[in-house]
Amino acid sequence: MIDVGTNSVKLRVAERHGDDWTAVVDRAEVTRLGEGVLARGAIASVAAARTADAIASMAEEASREHVRAIAAIGTAGLRAATNRDEVLATIRERSGLDVEVISGDEEGRLAYLAVRSGLPDAEGPLVVFDTGGGSSQFTFGEGDRVRERFSVLVGSAGCAEAFGLDEAVPESVIEEARAAIGADLERLRAHQANERLVGMGGAVTNMTAVMLELDPYDADRVQGATLSVEEVDRQIERYRSTHADDRRSIVGLQRNRAEVILAGACIARTVMDVLRADALTVSDRGLRHGVFLDRFSQTEV
User: Fold this and answer.
1) Structural domains of the chain, ranges and CATH numbers in brackets
2) pTM for this one?
3) pLDDT for 62-94, tens place per residue?
């Protein structure tokens, strides 16, 4: 399965054993597909080319593993781009794959499916949020039942671009960014404070890796970990006071996420504030895991 996001492209190759899937390949490559989309409305040709090259490489890797089927899914960056058809044609020409651009609603459903599979002890009302480069998805449910899901155009790439968060910035800029994020998340305020918050996506998992000082990344330690408000605040201050180049030396932080990690942390912290959550549970399992369950396992939510 190939997940074509606004900031990164992810590949997951897995084998099925009964009702379970065992990963053979699980990796990500930051291609910044959505770089500049906020300002231009269109994906730049250089961003489309490097993303198409990454997808072609991943498709070849999957073929070497003798996969029986490949699902390629596109999300917010492609949904928003005015030149989406041209970008999809470039990807098709270089990789031979047709990327299916899914709605934010569908993205939220698949994320919830992944969480329910990967965190079976997550009981009671749940709020699952997945923050990507171009949007954030929110899904509300209990058990296997989804009550509500929606997507908002708040993403780490767009936020970093809008507020210059790839640089060291004063506290006033963080306050301004969080106020803008909070305004875009107004729809969340109607929800209860007793809903358990589960976060996924590159920002949340990278913050967890930094907290645990993971080098290399260890998905098993990240899965089910807890990020507190205090830890997120600590990391915001750490990133706020450094340029992206200096952030690359932080243990646990993926080097290619240095430009967007502060924006992602601000989004996560604002979500916690709006939902009155003191902490969130981290899910390493994301969209690609949900696609496996949905497309290849006939598991439904």
Assistant:
1) 2-101 (3.30.420.40), 104-287 (3.30.420.150)
2) 0.81
3) 999 999 999 999 998 899 899 999 999 999 999
